[in-house]
Amino acid sequence: MQARQQQMYTCVSATVSDMHTAGEPLRIIEKVTPDPLLLSQRTSLLALRRHLSDNCDWLRRFVVLEPRGHADMYAAYLIRPACHPQADVSVLFLHNDGYSTMCGHAVIALAKYGASRGLVEATPPRTTVNIECPCGLVQAAYHHGDEDNPDSSSFISVPAFLDATYNNFTVQLEDQSSKQFTELTLNFDLAYGGAYYVILPARQLGLDIQTDAVDSLIRICQQLKAAISSRVDVSRNELLCPDLAFIYGVILTDGRDGELESDNLCVFADGEVDRSPTGSGVTARVAAQAAKGQVRQDGVWRTFRNSKTGSVMLGRLAEEVDAASGTVRVEVSGRAFFTGSGVLTAETGDPMLPGFRVK
């Protein structure tokens, strides 16, 4: 079996461009040999996502995991021609544990990539790039910048909403050193910004997102996500198809909801820590704040800062989509930078294929 698996990867190569948005890495997969989607039915992007997950997960492991990537690597697999008739490109998002439904930092990077690398015709000072994500069509824009103004990217989210606010929700969390369980009573928001997030102030957990060690934050967020996921069924929401109905991450905040500046830290997938303020997380936070009357459609940008790196994104309420369901669209802005490019290869006989994680 091992020999057959190695033979399968003997001729693999992937052409990639690397970027970062507000510190969070993005590996853009431009071309793969052999093409993992060659024999797939391109009925929809979600169908391709299922095909990649079920039949060709070797690509994610090859590109994202060690020794070519790392535990916090994030990738975007470009699919052209796009599945959606109005999209310039479709994209699948890959992380350390699988496939996400939306990624704001990736969309911000892809807007710059699209305008800079000929994915679309550049039309300074603003180039529009329509990107189909698993959660839906997202209109992104690259703002070219000049001598007086730095470049940036922005996007208008898919319909976002506050799913529910949970009060007096009890969870048991294990202390790593004592192995004893502590019962906590929490109040948190469950909000959707293209992906589902649990959002709560870190102080409820006795944590400080500025000073506490990242390992401690990861451990508690992972326990919290598992506890809430086991008791809260997000598939009940009729606004979403089953492929989108799962809790993706936990966002710990400084508690300054609705203020002009706020810090947060997002732990998603299998303990992956976002170095940026999390684009879809900003969307979810603004949607939750709008539902509570903490923000209005007033054109005012609010600053969201990553508590560890200090990097920023801006977010504002762009549109109220449907008053009955409380859905809104959020505009998110940030800056992305190219960091490298190359070809990832697999040498015959490499025993570390297709990739691994050290935990």
Automatic annotation (TrEMBL):
<dbReference type="InterPro" id="IPR008794">
    <property type="entry name" value="Pro_racemase_fam"/>
</dbReference>
<dbReference type="Pfam" id="PF05544">
    <property type="entry name" value="Pro_racemase"/>
</dbReference>
<dbReference type="GO" id="GO:0050346">
    <property type="term" value="F:trans-L-3-hydroxyproline dehydratase activity"/>
</dbReference>
<protein>
    <recommendedName>
        <fullName>trans-L-3-hydroxyproline dehydratase</fullName>
        <ecNumber>4.2.1.77</ecNumber>
    </recommendedName>
</protein>
<comment type="similarity">
    <text>Belongs to the proline racemase family.</text>
</comment>
